[in-house]
Write a structure and sequence with these properties.
Number of helices: 3
Strand content: under 5%
Shape: rod-shaped
Largest sheet: none
Helix content: over 70%
């Protein structure tokens, strides 16, 4: 490293031709060099930097524009979703109300149907009871009639002699014959 600084040091002792030479004092030359470099960069790099900044500005503006469009689209979709939600809620309320009224109607129909069925069962029960009563009455009548006939036959058989018995049979046969003739005519 000493050789490099020595070579720059020897440059500083060059004979000056009109006062031009290299200044090896780093603290004095650094701000001058930086200002020269910055001046050259600003002068020549101004167009490039301006183009870079314009491109960056356009990208930022495009991003903002896209964001605004997306925001507007999102707001529009949100409004549509809210409208659909209101519509669905209204339909749900309508179904709920209709469902309750339908349930009440079905309940009344079921109650009426059950009442009608119970009435029919009551009528069938009463008819069955009347039928059974009539059948029992008829059975009792038949037994009473049968016993009365047996008693009458027993009385007739004990009172009738053979001749009276034959006459009664002949009379009954005559009556049946006359009834048969009347029917045929």
């Amino acid at each position: 490293m000493k050789n490099v600084t020595d070579s720059f040091g020897s440059l500083g002792h060059w004979p000056s031709a009109g006062g031009f030479g290299f200044n090896t004092d780093i603290l004095a030359t650094n701000p001058i060099n930086l200002s020269v470099v910055l001046g050259v960069l600003i002068f020549f790099g101004k167009g490039v930097l301006s183009d870079l900044l314009d491109n960056r500005k356009q990208r930022i503006l495009n991003t903002i524009r896209n964001s605004e469009e997306l925001r507007e689209g999102a707001i529009e979709q949100l409004e549509k979703a809210r409208a659909r939600l209101r519509k669905v809620e209204a339909e749900a309320d309508e179904y709920r109300v209709n469902g309750y009224s339908e349930i009440e109607r079905e309940k009344l129909n079921l109650i009426n149907s059950t009442y009608n069925t119970l009435e029919q069962l009551e009528n069938y029960k009463n008819e069955t009871i009347n039928f059974e009563q009539q059948r029992a009455i008829n059975q009792v009548r038949q037994r009473v009639l049968q016993q009365a006939l047996q008693g009458a036959l027993g009385t007739i058989n004990s009172c009738l002699n053979k001749e009276l018995h034959l006459r009664t049979i002949s009379t009954n046969i005559g009556m049946f014959a006359s009834m048969k003739e009347i029917r045929n005519n």
